[in-house]
Design a protein that fits this description.
Structural class: alpha/beta
Oligomer: single chain
EC number: 5.1.3.14
Family: Belongs to the UDP-N-acetylglucosamine 2-epimerase family.
Protein name: UDP-N-acetylglucosamine 2-epimerase (non-hydrolyzing)
Number of domains: 2
Order of helices and strands: EHEHEHEHEHEHEHHEHEHEHEHEHEHHH
CATH topology of the largest domain: Rossmann fold
CATH superfamily of the largest domain: Glycogen Phosphorylase B
Radius of gyration: 20 Å
Enzyme class: isomerase
Strand content: 15-25%
CATH class of the largest domain: Alpha Beta
Largest sheet: 7 strands, parallel
Organism: Clostridium luticellarii
């Protein structure tokens, strides 16, 4: 019986969330022997996801260092994977999305002439510095990849314009929807008791994340000032800000929002807590990429705290709007959703363009097709 040897590689929490359902699907296929390699680009937050999905890595590069640089991450991943690839000699390396781990993993596989599969391929802003460094990580990975698992037809069209052969592109939906079918529970009780005390039925609870590198400094400052005004202007609003552990972000957030009434500043939650908080909240404000896909699946409007997004399908569908980082604009757009029920309902009832929860099955089928295996 022909058997494919594959290695799935990821290093951050968002990658782990989206790779977990695919790993579970690959485990079901007798013709595929998949091993898991984590770089631990983000150690603590990554481990939470591994525990949730009961994934035990076969290889752990454990590269995270204090004040790590992009160059340091890239070189440590390349060095670590070189020995693993030499020993394992996989037929296929699977990477996800747009992290530095993703690019370095694809590059390491290219150096060994190993087939590369790219999950969540084809997203573009066409501005190499927004988001930074993710836009170029994704484009460079796309230039290396042999199999492109595009979440939407728009992503597929981006790849076609760049000259990728159509028979190497597979429109699958986004694997994060697969993951949410596992994590979201009716009547969920939070491990963080502060979240259990919030009146989700009578308050308009806004969930916030904002930490991206391109927003460091004035961007985060403007966002925080806008959030403070939104809460002060709307007595029915309760705000939960999941504050990134990076001191550059954390110090600014606590300086402006610390001690403000009806503002809860919490550390990042694990995946299950985050998804269930999203399910209970009124709306989401974020500069994250993944939340732009996750929140609409639960019928939650999203204001993106960035000037551009590599996920234009959600904007076209009406589930997401770009608010940027201008204080007055953020306040104006948030107030429209808080005060105007028609505006809120229009966004919350729009159809999420990111799939039906079967992306992992489609990716697995595409891999078997590529390697000419019939099951």
């Amino acid at each position: 019986m022909k058997k494919i040897k594959s290695i799935t590689i990821f290093g951050t929490r968002p990658e782990a969330i989206k790779m977990a359902p695919l790993i579970k699907e690959l485990e079901k296929i007798e013709n595929i022997e998949n091993k898991v390699c984590v770089t631990a680009q983000h150690r603590q937050m990554l481990d939470q996801v591994l525990e949730l999905f009961k994934i035990k890595p076969d290889f752990d590069l454990n590269i995270m260092k204090s004040k790590q640089t992009l160059t340091g991450i890239t070189t440590r991943v390349l060095h670590g994977l070189e020995d693993i690839f030499e020993e394992e000699k996989p037929d296929l390396v699977i990477v996800h999305g747009d992290t530095t781990t993703t690019f370095a993993g694809a590059l390491a596989a290219f150096y060994k002439k190993i087939t590369v599969g790219h999950v969540e391929a084809g997203l573009r802003t066409y501005d190499k510095y927004f988001p930074f460094p993710e836009e170029m990580n994704r484009k460079l990975t796309g230039a290396i990849a042999d199999l492109h698992f595009a979440p939407t037809s728009g992503s597929k069209n981006n790849l076609l314009r760049e000259g990728v052969p159509e028979d190497r592109i597979f429109v699958t939906g986004n694997t994060v929807i697969d993951a949410m079918n596992f994590t979201v529970e009716k009547g969920y009780v939070f491990n963080n008791n502060e979240l259990n005390k919030i009146d989700y039925d009578h308050k308009k609870v806004i969930m916030v994340t904002a930490h991206r590198r391109e927003n460091w400094g004035s961007g985060i400052e403007n966002i925080c000032k806008a959030l403070k005004k939104i809460v002060q202007d709307n007595a029915e609003v309760e705000l939960i800000y999941l504050v990134h552990l990076n001191p550059i972000v954390k110090d600014m957030v606590y300086k402006i929002l610390g001690g403000v009434s009806r503002v809860h500043l919490l550390p990042p939650l694990d995946t299950k807590e985050t998804h269930n908080l999203m399910n209970r909240c009124y709306m989401v404000m974020t500069d994250s990429g993944g939340l732009q896909e996750e929140a609409p699946h639960l019928g939650k409007p999203v204001l993106v705290l960035r000037s551009v997004t590599e996920r234009p399908e959600a904007i076209k569908a009406g589930t997401v709007k770009l608010a940027g980082t201008d204080k007055d604009n953020i306040v104006k757009m948030a107030n429209e959703l808080i005060l105007n029920s028609d505006e809120y309902n229009m966004m919350s009832r729009s159809i999420n363009p990111y799939g039906d929860g079967r992306a992992s099955k489609r990716i697995t089928a595409a891999i078997l097709q590529y390697f000419d295996i019939l099951i």
